[in-house]
Structure to design on (402 residues):
């Protein structure tokens, strides 16, 4: 490298400097002695600048390369689509009651089935309260009723006899009226005592507490020997034969359903109860919709009857994934929701891929559900629609589909 520079200096630079020096000398010869030094300095500076310009390396102009973005796409396909709304909810027994004592007394027996988590059949006796006082009350009421009925019988006979005597003119009307009044009083007394007997019989029957329907037992609070009073809590019974699913639809989902159908009552519901690595499916139908919108979650509660549980050993409180179907739509394209863009000026639009570049296209959507958007018009069958979002999205942007 040094040899090349030395050769270059001898062949080109040195002769040029010598020639330039001779030229300067000839130019300075006619000048006075005092003017030669300044002129020499100026000439040397010009020479140095010329050398710098000549030897300065040339820089190449940078031409930026257009950037291409890797994207994901979805192929447009028109057909019949049934939108699905996915939510999460809770299975509840259709009936939950707090079983209570209806009479006071000492608990003398408790069924072996009356314990936490037990299953009891309708009509099964769960516990018994000491019936002694209630048997006595019933016996006394019945005795009073027998006495009152005997008195009523005698009063009726007296009235019938007085009526015959009055017809013969033997007794006055006043006597007949007295017998009639006595008969009415005795009849009312019998009716009252019949009510007393029925009440006493019911109290005696209520000393035995039975299950009103097939149920699972929880919150048991009684045991043998405990004294209970009317309305004391005994246990909680959850209906084992009828269940409901309570789940929530957001404002947008509920509004989308109402905009495309008059009512959602009766719509099919599919639920999955995930237990470990197992999935237990069952079905239902929407029974009713909550009366108000929950302001904490901005949604409305939906309650569905469970119509089929298959082999699922379902229990109240199970957390389930719920899928509710809406009405079917003909000739629509189902796209991922990320494919739809909104603009204040142009409204809804998507980006299709044309010759490797993005092209915006206004579209008309009919519903959003379950992370999908249903498009009625604006794109054609087989077109590729952008589903990736990035800041540089615009018409003409170069993209690449891996």
């Amino acid at each position: 490298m040094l040899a090349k520079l030395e050769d270059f200096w001898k062949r080109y630079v040195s002769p040029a400097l010598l020639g330039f020096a001779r030229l300067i000398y000839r130019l300075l010869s006619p000048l006075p002695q005092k003017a030669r030094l300044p002129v020499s300095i100026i000439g040397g500076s010009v020479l140095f600048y010329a050398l710098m310009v000549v030897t300065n390396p040339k820089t190449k102009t940078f031409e930026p390369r257009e950037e291409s973005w890797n994207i994901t796409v979805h192929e447009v396909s028109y057909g019949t689509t049934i939108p699905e709304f996915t939510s999460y909810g809770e299975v509840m027994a259709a009936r939950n009651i707090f079983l209570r004592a209806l009479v006071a007394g000492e608990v003398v027996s408790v069924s072996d089935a009356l314990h936490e988590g037990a299953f009891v059949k309708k009509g099964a006796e769960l516990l018994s309260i000491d019936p002694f006082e209630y048997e006595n009350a019933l016996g006394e009421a019945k005795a009073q009723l027998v006495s009152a009925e005997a008195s009523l019988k005698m009063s009726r006979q007296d009235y019938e006899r007085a009526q015959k005597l009055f017809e013969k003119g033997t007794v006055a009307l006043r006597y007949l009226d007295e017998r009639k009044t006595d008969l009415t009083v005795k009849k009312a007394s019998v009716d009252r005592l019949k009510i007393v007997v029925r009440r006493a019989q019911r109290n005696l029957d209520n000393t035995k507490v039975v299950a009103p329907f097939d149920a699972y037992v929880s919150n048991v609070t009684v045991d043998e020997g405990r004294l209970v009073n009317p309305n004391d809590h005994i246990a909680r019974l959850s209906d084992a034969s009828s269940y409901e699913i309570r789940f929530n639809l957001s404002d947008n989902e509920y509004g989308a359903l109402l905009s495309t159908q008059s009512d959602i009552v009766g719509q099919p519901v599919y639920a999955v109860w995930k237990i470990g690595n197992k999935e237990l499916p069952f079905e239902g139908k929407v029974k009713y919709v909550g009366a108000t919108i929950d302001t904490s979650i901005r949604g409305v509660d939906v309650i569905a009857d469970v119509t089929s549980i298959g082999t699922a050993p379902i229990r109240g409180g199970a957390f389930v994934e719920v899928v509710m179907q809406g009405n079917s739509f003909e000739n629509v394209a189902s796209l991922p929701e990320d494919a739809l863009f909104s603009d204040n000026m142009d409204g809804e639009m998507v980006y299709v891929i044309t010759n490797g570049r993005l092209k915006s296209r206004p579209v008309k959507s009919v519903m959003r559900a379950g992370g999908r958007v249903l498009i009625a018009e604006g794109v054609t069958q087989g077109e590729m629609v952008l589903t990736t979002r990035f800041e540089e999205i615009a018409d003409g942007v170069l993209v690449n589909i891996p």
Q: What stands out?
A: Residues 50 and 251 are 79 Å apart (CA to CA). The chain has a mean pLDDT of 83.
